[in-house]
Design goal:
Blueprint (H helix, E strand, L loop, with lengths): L53 E13 L4 E12 L6 E4 L5 E7 L2 E2 L1 E5 L3 E5 L9 E10 L3 E4 L3 E8 L2 E5 L19 E10 L3 E4 L2 E8 L2 E12 L6 E4 L1 E7 L5 E7 L6 H22 L7 E6 L6 E2 L6 E3 L10 H9 L7 E3 L6 H17 L5 H9 L23 H18 L1 H14 L3 E3 L1 H12 L4 H7 L9
Parallel strand pairs: 1-12, 18-19, 19-21, 22-23
Antiparallel strand pairs: 1-2, 2-8, 3-7, 4-5, 4-8, 6-7, 9-10, 10-11, 11-16, 12-15, 13-16, 14-15, 17-18, 20-21
Helix pairs in contact: 1-2, 2-3, 3-5, 4-5, 5-6, 6-7
């Protein structure tokens, strides 16, 4: 996510609750003890976020948007595998959307909704460990927009002619039932339907378009595992430009007509996106996804977000504007750092934002701007009393995951690591890290150990000073 300007995202937390109901066990499993899955993934910053007892492999999401009512009609199918003998399990689902049908493996299941976001599902019979199963939910209504006092706007965000889904860190559950934590990545299919004068957009590759009865449906596939906080859909009036990077990656960009962006600038946005992807591929290794691109939108949230494969840039305060090169470098840098490799816990978010900010520094240095050292020096000159030096980079606290502590000081920590291990080892690390943990999750501890392994040098002192300590480190 881009921090300047920012109006950042989260969801109000609530206590997890639910009836401890045991499903009837099948006759051939009398000795099996079926127990409920956990109502959270165990993340200290967001206790209700995610769930336990199963692992999702795929989401199939069909959304139909009605401009007159601003409502959606939706069918979401969740394909998962039980990781314990389940009597019941939870998905995250919040807001006023009303469920009209819910089945597990085609059979009606009972469900309750409780707490801030718990959808508690009890199948007709227990689910044995390792069993693959599908949950199908049919629902409708006007999705909720979240506005957290500390972290800003997320979830479903209405626009003048439609809406857009921006999920970081916990907005996905306003639009579809989900295991909403970065550690449960899954592939996605989207089928988006709207009146034919509207454009529909999502993550991944556009695989089909069909118009009938005045409605157009587009189909999209994100075939690489994706954290729910990076999923995106958009409905509205957009101009779409298609191209390719020099490396041959398909590149789809879209500009919100409410932004009044010229055709020449829309094409420039596409070209600059391709150039940045090529530049960063040279630094970080192969681009992680089968397509790239970006979307400019007038949504009133005041931030850009690294939605997987196709970042979203809200530049509504600047009519006619397209993203700058350094903003593109930040959000596209996230495709390696934050998207392909996602944090194990939200406390590890500096691994996203520190590297994305450092991507800006590297881009500017290569394109006639400040050198990386000059960028570091400018931030280091900030007085010791500044908020930049309050808190720990590796554990900023729930309400501070989008602070300068995470972004700027995170980038500074990376630069000091570069000075500690030398350029040869550092640039080797920039490629090795997103390769080693591609499509998975990693923690600060993982990174420190991996950096030490790549560099063949003790980096414990660096980590203690720059990641795990408060205050302004001496150079």
């Amino acid at each position: 996510m881009s921090r300047t300007p920012r109006a950042l995202a989260a969801v109000a937390l609530g206590a997890a609750a639910g009836l401890m109901v045991s499903a009837a066990a099948p006759a051939d499993a009398d000795a099996v003890r079926f127990t409920p899955g956990a109502p959270g993934a165990g993340d200290p910053y967001f206790p209700d976020m995610g769930n336990g007892g199963f692992d999702v492999s795929h989401y199939d999401i069909a959304l139909r948007y009605g401009p007159k009512t601003k409502a959606i009609q939706a069918v979401t199918t969740v394909t998962a595998r039980a990781t314990q003998d389940l009597s019941r399990f939870d998905l995250d689902f919040q807001g006023p959307l009303k469920i009209s049908s819910l089945t597990v493996d085609g059979r009606p299941a009972s469900y309750t909704r409780s707490g801030a976001q718990e959808l508690v599902i009890t199948p007709r019979e227990g689910l044995r460990e390792h069993r693959r199963f599908q949950v199908r939910a049919v629902y409708s209504g006007v999705p909720q927009t979240i506005n957290d006092p500390a972290l800003g706007v997320s979830g479903w965000v209405p626009t003048a002619d439609g809406g857009i889904m921006l999920n970081q860190p916990i907005g996905a559950a306003t639009v579809y039932p989900v295991n909403d934590h970065p550690t449960d990545k899954a592939t996605y299919s989207f089928a988006l339907t709207a009146p034919k004068d509207l454009t529909t957009l999502a993550n991944g590759d556009l695989t089909g378009t069909r118009t009938a009865g005045g409605l157009t449906t587009t189909r999209w596939e994100m075939r690489s595992p994706m954290a729910s906080e990076l999923a995106m859909v958009a409905f509205g009036k957009y101009d779409v430009v298609n191209g390719r990077t020099k490396g041959g990656v398909p590149n789809l960009t879209a500009t919100d007509r409410a932004m009044a962006i010229s055709a020449a600038d829309a094409k420039k946005f596409n070209q600059q996106t391709a150039e940045v992807v090529d530049f960063e591929s040279g630094l970080y290794g192969r681009y992680p996804y089968s397509s790239t691109g970006g979307i400019t939108v007038k949504a009133g949230v005041g931030y850009a977000l690294e939605t997987q494969g196709r970042p979203v840039y809200d530049l509504g305060r600047h009519p006619g504007a397209i993203p700058s090169g350094d903003l593109l470098a930040h959000e596209l840098g996230h495709q390696w750092f934050g998207d392909a490799v996602s944090p194990r816990r939200w406390a590890d978010i500096w691994l996203n934002e520190g590297f994305a900010t450092y991507s800006e520094w590297l881009y500017n240095a290569a394109h006639g701007g400040k050198t990386v050292q000059q960028a570091f020096d400018a931030d280091y000159a900030t007085p010791a009393t500044d908020d930049l030096w309050k808190g720990k980079v590796a554990d900023p606290g729930r309400d501070h995951i989008f602070d300068g502590l995470v972004y700027d000081r995170g980038a500074m920590a990376i630069h000091v690591l570069r000075q500690t291990i030398g350029d040869k080892a550092f640039f080797k690390l920039l490629k090795a890290w997103p390769t080693r943990y591609r499509y998975g999750n990693a923690s600060t501890k993982d990174f420190v150990a991996f950096a030490q392994q790549v560099a063949h040098k003790d980096v414990g002192g660096w980590a203690a000073k720059w990641l795990y300590s408060e205050g302004k480190p001496a150079l």
